[in-house]
Amino acid sequence: MDVHDVTDQYFQLINRQKQMLLEAKKRQGQRPSDRKSKEHLYDTFMLAFMFRAKKEGHLVHSSFIPPAYLPCTTPMTGLRPVAIKDLQLETHHRGTYLLLRSITPPSRMTAIMAIMEDENGDAIMLQLYQQEDESARAAADIVDVGTILLVKEPYFKVMGDGEYGLRVDHVSDVIHLKSDDARIPTAWQPQLMEIDRSAESLKIEGNLAFEESRYWDAITAYSDALGQPATTNEIEIIKRNRSLAFIKTKQFDAALSDAGFPDFNFNPNPPEKAMFRAAEALYNLQKFSECCQVLELLCTNFPHNSQASMVLTRAQSRFLEQKTGVYIFKELQAKAKKLRPPHLDHATYIGPVEKKQTESKGRGLFVTKAVKAGDLLLCEKAFGHAHADKGAGDGNKSSSQISLLLNPETNQGVMGAQADLIKLIVQKLYHNPSVASAFTALYHGNYEGVTTSAVDAEPMVDTFLVERIISFNGFGCPVSSLTSHTEACDQYSTPAEKPTEQEAHHSCGIWTHASYINHSCISNARRAFIGDMMIVRASRDMEAGTEINFWYHNPDGISEKDLQKKLKHWGFVCGCAICLDARMTDAAVVTKRQKLREDLKQGFSSPVLHLIRTKKIERLLDLLNQTYTQPAEDVPRLLLWDPQLALARIYAAQNKAGKSIESVGKVLTSLGFVVVGADPSPTRFAIVRWGLLVDRLVETFLHARTAFAAIGAREDSERAEGYARTTFKIIVGEDSSFHTTYK
Ligand SMILES: C[S@@+](CC[C@H](N)C(=O)[O-])C[C@H]1O[C@@H](n2cnc3c(N)ncnc32)[C@H](O)[C@@H]1O
């Protein structure tokens, strides 16, 4: 993940956590004799609960990923009960389950916590991780006073504060029991029997909960109703109602099934509502073709349903995007600017690409036909996207959105919305198993998860597999590459001084198709973002069958050693020509280059006469150029192009068109381009071979446009503008904002 890596800053914290884990491990298997009484745990928890409630909203979350363990794969019938008093520290109690009842309300930190008791009256702190956000589902919906649940294969451990507790990382390891479940002990059963538990009264209860936006309660009531005797007609109505509640809670697989899709229960004239629910679910599952089919039938059978025809128009637009890759990018930019989180209602387009095995990088993505620089390869909606406001973590009021995620097992520390992304994807997989395989098929290193995806007919999600996949495949992203492009170019104020800090993104996501693209510093594609859409365009012309590569981390402005450090957690060392050349370069040459860049910096800031100054700069650039031995088209000269551009800028300001064009040609050559006509000769200006696509290339081509125009080479000027526009399109993802950005 190319997000804000803070491993170095939090090295000590990671080490401290490792030490704590080692200490805790020494107690493995112990049955602690100093467990606190139920009363003590209750009092302490409630005090902290009240104190925390007052401070709510100003929490900066930090969390440690514990050593990975597998979710429970044993069916309930194969598990035996265990009691709190029998739990052993630092142990996963495989083959058992613990029956618990909550004696406190929940407290939400990184996990949802509550004090639970067992049948013997012993109590324990329970921590439930990876649950939905408060905005999606209130913590009290998950656990509250009186909630009875089963924890499968409980993990008993020493917690951060030295107390003992249960930690549950896999959402499928907890089963909530309904009030009539036979496993509930008599003493915990409700004293008063409810009067009316008929399907009809439960349906009404569900409807009421739905009207009050208590969708989870509505689902429980409808599900209870379906457990009671009812006519076929009643069952269908309850299911249709539940289907809508499933849609509201993003459980689209279940919504589709409740709507009766695909055969609508063999009904040749499916009910209007059933079709509408199915269409909504299909839309959200991005199945636009099937969605259009259902809506077309709905509009034919019920021509007065204006909402259906509106949704059909929307679904048709998505279907068209999916088929053709034609988007109204201006609209996408406008939506990304306005929406928070910037999740856009648009479809994924998969261009001329296919997944194949590479020789040494695992699987990769290849073009299936010849493409030109600028061509669209992918325009992909994120499978999951977690947004963190820019500036979050800087002490402003958005700071609660940012978190620190530390993994002592992989020695990694990242700052941003990753913790949210893990949670979000765990929930998506848990609630929509039909989409899981696109995610679980992604690269996950040597992590060996479970081979099954369901237990007791319920989906099973391995949180640690999700974390591993995100770590290897996630990308940090700006809200819009248009903004980051303009910011990157504005930042470049001092000539010959590369910006040292590359932008660290706090928002992040997973794009399951783009995830097959391997890294190379000498890339032939670039990714851009508009909201949660990733746009991948070719940055060079490619033959059919070429492997697509983009850089995971920009190689410009960073030493080879630091770059490998950034790439380390992906588990490979870049073997591209730039990196190999850097490794072979003598230390004396490195020092010489540094010295020349220092001299150039001084040269640019020198107040001496222009002519003397540019002459000196030319000489220094020439010396710097001579330090490279490999042809620039094989090994781009990353320390040369930016001072060369600074010189082109000076010539442009001095209206020295010829010199400006010559400098532009040198910028392009140092970036690995092969160009012709970058001089006042009659040869037409053209790119024979594209090179590295840095942000300031747009400016470079625009200098050429102006200079060619000044010498009356109109055609060359137009061509230079065309290249500027193509470059902009590759970097930003689209070119509809080209003229407003570069007036
Ligand atoms: C996002 S995945 C890319 C797809 C992956 N190759 C696969 O088989 O699914 C990232 C992983 O691909 C591999 N990879 C990517 N670029 C590589 C490179 N330049 N050299 C070697 N391995 C690379 C590494 O294992 C990395 O962790």
TrEMBL record:
Domain called SET: residue spans: 351-553
InterPro entries linked: Gramillin-biosynth_MTr, SET_dom, SET_dom_sf, TPR-like_helical_dom_sf
Superkingdom classification of source: Eukaryota
PANTHER family in the cross-refs: TPR DOMAIN PROTEIN (AFU_ORTHOLOGUE AFUA_5G12710)
Name of the featured protein: Tetratricopeptide-like helical domain
Lineage: Eukaryota, Fungi, Dikarya, Ascomycota, Pezizomycotina
